[in-house]
């Protein structure tokens, strides 16, 4: 029978668009499966520290039976000159355990996520040029019960700033910000608030939206439901913003973030009509969109 010392020293699983790539190192045998989509490669000669290379702009990592350490190298398929304009965000799985996650640069480690840290699902963001990810397993009596995992995204620093405005995350948008959001957001809809569900543990609110007109959506967050053929969907925002159900239509804009719709600017629709008309009359509207 095989003892614990012969369990895989690293078993990393990277997911991208429902494609799974498994790389495992066993004490005597090395098995390696690579999908050309993910860009995951493995340095088999390393024993205590394993390396993975990810070339997709978003995905997830699962490290099963963590021992030793992983160095996660994000290498997007863009010009290296553009790296300085990138922000990296990671979101640990709710049940992630067995390792600490650090930001590493030139041998210096900065703790991002402590093993066993619980609480609201947090997103940790940093500039691409601030370093890479170093995931170090913590001593465990039974590593077979531990899985360390997180989602990751690479995005431009401008988009990241929109999603993580620390100074005033709930402030109303100016007319200029609304008009720009209409042109650049991942989704733009006219709709009403059917209900709001508050999740105290996650410190988030889920806005249940009835859609009257769909201008644009990057992902199929808003879909036809039921025989009536009504469009509906959900948008998340911070609990501290205090969103409540109300009458009337709004123009909802926002970004997709870790597979979820996150609220951006959301003026009342009549206010959007006014600002859009004023900008169009002056030839200042940044893009064309039908306000009705």
UniProtKB/TrEMBL annotation:
InterPro entries: Meteorin-like, TIMP-like_OB-fold. GO terms for molecular function: hormone activity. One of its GO terms (biological process) is response to muscle activity. Coiled coil: none annotated. It is found in: Secreted. It comes from the Eukaryota. This is Meteorin-like protein. It comes from Serinus canaria.
